[in-house]
Amino acid sequence: MMINRVAIIGLGLLGGSIGLAVQARGLAIATTGWDRDPQVRAKAAERGLVGRVCETAAEAVANADLVILCVPVGAMGDAARELAPGLSPHAIISDVGSSKEAVAEALSAALPGACIIPAHPVAGTEQSGPDAGFATLFAGRWCIITPPYGVEPAALTALSDFWTKLGSKVELMDAAHHDLVLAVTSHIPHLIAYTIVGTASDLEDVTQSEVIKYSAGGFRDFTRIAASDPVMWRDVFLTNKGAVLEMLGRFSEDLTALQRAIRSGDGDTLFDLFTRTRAIRRQVIEQGQDDGRPDFGRGHGG
Ligand code: NAP
Questions:
Q1: Do 145 and 255 reside in the same domain of the chain?
Q2: Which domain holds residue 143?
Q3: Cα–ligand 1 centroid distance for 297 (angstroms)
Q4: Helices (H), 25-152
Q5: What does the pLDDT look like over 129-174, one tens digit per residue?
Q6: Is the CB of 37 under 6 A from ligand 1?
Q7: Which among 36, 55, 93, 102 has the fewest CB atoms less than 10 Å away?
């Protein structure tokens, strides 16, 4: 099974980056795209995010071998219904959504009988929209594919090869396990960042201007994550409810234990935890998942 034509639905950060990556890597794959917002379509055409920006979803997916939905997870069902009339019977339908069980259900309900193989490139930034995409977003990053039971092996191989050609490392995973893993590595960290930034902005005794002025003490690193797209993240929490609540329960218990350690002056507990967490940071860098320079390589020149 060869992928010669890819249709991208949703031309924001993820959709735009896929289109740019296909073109920048010189792959012999034609790209079409559609977004429900006419201003996004105009911007996508201006930036050349895909070879051809179409006026309807059905037009964009006509003759496509692979259709990738790059819309917020809560919009996957609607977008799939919109493109259904133009879909070729042999097309593979995939997506980039950050939660996988709910998306698989929404796509199967909207496109019964279609070859659906959900996926999640674990790559992104806090920016969104058609200006945000860039061709190297997926280079060296993992793409987790969550094939449903009984998937056609040739279609799975074609999708894996596509992501490999974009520079990603591909891993196959069960959708429920994906949702649990991502709850810990992505969804809870976002919730914590949203909380801490929200709490700081609601304080009475410490002014907001003080919070911003002294943010280099650590707070500013949370503000990057807390600047992430509100629609996307609202949908992630609503569609990965079970795994997020399970992990949040675990997190609250650990936080309570730390509270107790601080209150009782138990320095050993604090020291042991902080030593373990430092080792995790080293592993993230060693495995090429972040910049190893101090303070993310930010300039500190005087
Ligand atoms: P984005 O930059 O906001 O782009 C999404 C685009 O989809 C927007 O232009 C939006 O238009 C459009 N859209 C919304 N509903 C639509 C519909 N029913 N039909 C057609 N277009 C529609 O978001 P993104 O960051 O690319 O995220 C897209 C997907 O990637 C999400 O499912 C997210 O979970 C996943 N993801 C994101 C990241 C990340 O770091 N951002 C990483 C990995 C995966 P409007 O603005 O008009 O709504």
A1: no
A2: 5-173
A3: 29
A4: 38-47, 57-61, 76-83, 101-110
A5: 999 999 999 999 999 999 999 999 999 999 999 999 999 999 999 9
A6: yes
A7: 55
